[in-house]
Write a structure and sequence with these properties.
Structural class: mainly alpha
Helix content: over 70%
Distance between the termini: 6 Å
Radius of gyration: 18 Å
Shape: globular
Number of helices: 11
């Protein structure tokens, strides 16, 4: 892997290692649908002016329906599932379960992408990495009486991430400008979640910690994260 690839990988690991704590903080006061709506809405507000000024949105004509489908698999579904899941399980357990993503990619690749299939030492490496995550997190399985339901939601989210990682390699997506795809995904997710979020709006202004968590989730863990993620996939 190139030096640029390693730097993108490290950045991705850090940025997507922190959202679960902030999601946990946010869902203590807000409905998960409101949290996800705010997250993608903030990202849209930041990305849209940049994408429009660079003219990348025009290059997506004829591909909007495909991007909308990708949005459901990569953003709307996983973000909602994780947020609902974290109402019942600890943020550390959430990140542990999401770490199953590479193993799910390998599983899905058996039918979807021969180039991603692994065996031998590469498969052992994946299993060792999973074991390392378990050790680092200390197997924190805290949660309420519905923790099994919460864990199931998060595993389904990991499956969505795994499927979308394979989908974005397809030429129909890979050939499009990264900034444009991420922007349209965030805008689409915002529009889709608006009706549900309006029903679940809070009756009082959230605390400072929740507002700060939403900003981190929108600006860093969504807008910046997806730009880095697509660049990483394109690089390696």
């Amino acid at each position: 892997m190139t030096r640029k690839g390693w730097l993108l990988f490290i950045a991705m690991s850090v940025i997507w290692g922190i959202p679960y704590l902030f999601i946990k903080i946010a869902v203590q006061e807000l409905d998960p649908s409101v949290v996800v709506f705010a997250r993608v809405g903030i990202a849209s507000l930041v990305l849209l002016p940049v994408a429009a000024s660079r003219g990348v949105l025009r290059q997506l004509r004829g591909r909007l329906l495909i991007i909308a489908g990708l949005t459901l698999v990569q953003i709307v579904g996983p973000f909602l599932l994780i947020s609902y899941g974290e109402q019942h399980i600890a943020s550390s357990l959430t990140s542990l379960l999401i770490a199953a993503d590479p193993l799910l990619v390998v599983l899905f690749a058996l039918r979807l992408d021969a180039s991603e299939r692994v065996n031998g030492l590469r498969l052992i490496g994946l299993l060792v990495g999973m074991a390392g995550v378990v050790i680092l997190l200390g197997l924190d399985v805290g949660g309420d009486a519905q923790r099994l339901l919460g864990a199931t939601f998060v595993l389904l989210a990991a499956a969505g991430y795994a499927a979308s990682a394979l989908l974005i390699k397809r030429p129909v997506i890979a050939s499009l400008p990264i900034l444009g795809v991420v922007t349209v995904e965030c805008i689409t997710a915002t529009i889709l979640l608006l009706p549900l979020a309006l029903i679940k709006l809070p009756t009082r202004v959230p605390s400072i910690s929740v507002i700060a968590s939403l900003l981190v989730l929108g600006l860093i863990c969504t807008a910046l994260a997806y730009l880095i993620f697509y660049a990483l996939v394109a690089e390696v």
